[in-house]
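# step 3/5: fold
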Amino acid sequence: MPVLPTQPAMNITSNNGSITHTGKIAGQSVNLHAHGAMNVGGTYLYAEDNVNAQSDDSITVDGSGAQTGFAYTTANIITINASKDIIVHDVSTTGLEAELNMLAEKS
């Protein structure tokens, strides 16, 4: 796992639409909230504390861009909540998380 400097919280919010992010996301905590669909992928999604992702639609997390031998997601607590579907593709963790919570409330 790359050594990351202590950074403030990373907050990405879309009040009226969707979030699509590919690349690197890191911070003390990572908070993602979208009114529409959320698509997150890229190299890694790391937090020194917690990762929280919430969408009023669906969430797709794609870890296929992670470097070989590295976890895509690292955090103390990972929480993913979607009002519709949660789709997870090729996402690895360190296995050291205190909690991993996912809730899809598709009606």
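# step 4/5: annotate
The radius of gyration is 13 Å.
# step 5/5: archive (pending)
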